[in-house]
Design brief:
The protein has helices at residues 2-5, 12-22, 35-40, 64-87. With 88 residues, it is mainly α.
Length: 88
Amino acid sequence: MDTQCAPFAVKASKLEWYWEEKATGSLTAIPKWTYAEALDSITQPPTAQVEEEGTLNFTALVDEKRWYDEKVSMEFFEYQEVRHSRYT
């Protein structure tokens, strides 16, 4: 999140919200640390990429193409939803 969100100047409060809501992938499991605490605990840059399935229990990199494709898809979805609500 830190690497991908920094160029967009995403507010810390929005990162914290996303971390709390989405980091574990479960509605019932809350993260052990806040986003800021997790970021502060990193002592070395990550070298391993996260897998598509499984438990994320280490600091990981995200495949750049997968991240970009997901970002574009989400932006397009948001664009369509705005148009849909505005013109129907």
